[in-house]
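INFO  loader      accepted 1 record
INFO  loader      residues=351
INFO  predictor   begin
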Amino acid sequence: MSGVNSPSFDFSGLDCLSTGAMVLDASDHIQYVNPATETLLGVSGVLLVGIPVGGVFERSPELLTAIQTARTQQETVIEYEIDAVVNGHPPIRIGCSITPLDRPLHALLIEMRAVDPHLRIARLEQARLQQEANRELLRNLAHEIKNPLGGIRGAAQLLEHELPRESLREYTQVIIKESDRLQSLMERLLTPHRTPRFGAVNIHEVLERVRSLVLAETPSVTLKRDYDISLPEIRADAEQLIQATLNIARNAVQAMHGQGLIIFKTRVARQSTLESRRNQLGMLVEIIDDGPGIPDEIRGQIFYPLVSGREGGSGLGLAVAQTLIAQNHGTIDCDSRPGHTVFSIFLPLAN
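INFO  predictor   done
INFO  writer      dumping tokens
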């Protein structure tokens, strides 16, 4: 079986892809469909080519919105889990990316793949268990370090009073300051584990608080909002959500060296997986930046404690953020490439 395309441009090079590939022309008519797309959707490409994409996927509003966003903003849009519904066929859970093309002019390439919910749940659960084991180890180490650290600091203070010359006290000051720095690190390892205080929370009030803090600390950053104001309140711990999103936003600011664009975006997430359970309705909060991206060598470990891509970084900000989001029954994920990093926070909504 070979892909189907219009005669104006040859896309046969995409026929060998194992993932689905579909090309839209400038007027959003389907111009090409590869064999993997035909298999995924269960529809012959001959029946799709030349049809407006809105007519084929009229029951897939999230996909159509993503296509419109990619066309309007002229940048790649990634959706991790959405329903693709071809008229007359059952819905298919897919992940997709929509990319503007230079040739043909104003064309869009849609790459899509089926999402296996069982594999995704297993992957999330394995990552959660591994990270929880790492955090437990660090908590135990923090408890063990705190007591001798206090003794070292106290001894340095006593010694400072006994030293005969002022110049010698510089050395005790180094001991005291470094002890305080380590003490602060230990406190950050231990603080995310208080019991959450749940109440009604407006997610946009949380994001506005974080926005004001970030702009106060780094006025040179541009911070834009893209809110779905129809989202209802959720039951969560507002302070924990503020701390989690602030950690992510600060991480973005540091990666961009204080210069760049951050976008706070909120949407409804349908059929999301939270705490190994499928939820009909969820809330998606995205923190998007145009920084350099996460280095390939640590991309799979960014939520592990003490893993940092920044010189001098503690590697605790994202680990703490993940813990706080998990305590509010949510999940956090990340997709990153140079110039476009997205941290996606999924939180449950009441049905």
